[in-house]
Here is the input.
Amino acid sequence: MAATAAAAAEAPLIEAVNVSRVLDEAVPVTLVRDINLAIRPREFVAITGPSGSGKSSLLYLMGLLDLPTTGEVRVLGRPTARIDEDERARIRLTGLGFVFQFHFLLPEFTARENVMLPMRALGRLSEAEMRARADEILASLGLAEHAGKRPDQMSGGQRQRVAVGRALANDPPVILADEPTGSLDTRSSEQVFAILRALVDERGKTVVAVTHSLDMAARMDRRIQIIDGRITADERTRQSGVEAGHAAPGA
Ligand SMILES: Nc1ncnc2c1ncn2[C@@H]1O[C@H](COP(=O)(O)OP(=O)(O)OP(=O)(O)O)[C@@H](O)[C@H]1O
Here is the structure.
């Protein structure tokens, strides 16, 4: 509760103000409508709802991967309605890390090289610094001995942990995850969940994750429910950061 209550007093990292997104088809498709929300520092937020309700659409809008038709998304206090795609890309690269249901690692690259990609795109570190940072991130995810392996030489759970490592590459304050455990077995799923939990509790990150799992949502701190593109519930789901399992990820 302490972390969540303290977070409530801080400036939001992501805000949606009257956000709607309508696809301009022959028959217009409304993905989300009238969304108002604020995501604050160190929150671990679940976005839940039935299939096709607009969860991914909302996450993409929050991550500046899509633009609202009306309303505005603010990221790290910055209004984003009138900035160009280069600027949006820069905010994504420094402020946000993305994890998807499928890892989307580049198959011809090693785990280390995949984690280095966002650092390379930002261009702030030397080759040696990028390499050292990637290895440090992989070690923190229990993957030290897998740094030189390509995705096809790793298990599904290991690949998804590399994808988390890639999301952490530029040390963004916010991680946005779309069904991050959706294609994993129970054990790997628990490992990835424990990593996300620890990112919030131990490293002060903010994590927003779309999930079908109500059990998982109950172990996060807040649940935003979407039905037919609208927020139908927004509630605290967990009272304390103490009881969560912080099991170290296995190799
Ligand atoms: N490009 C598109 N063209 C047409 N319809 C779309 C498009 N993108 C999304 N939709 C529709 O918009 C609705 C919301 O989609 P979205 O992927 O956000 O839902 P979701 O809650 O994440 O679903 P799921 O849980 O199945 O992943 C769905 O009915 C989907 O079919």
Notes: The longest strand covers residues 29-39. Residues 240-251 have pLDDT under 50 and may be disordered.
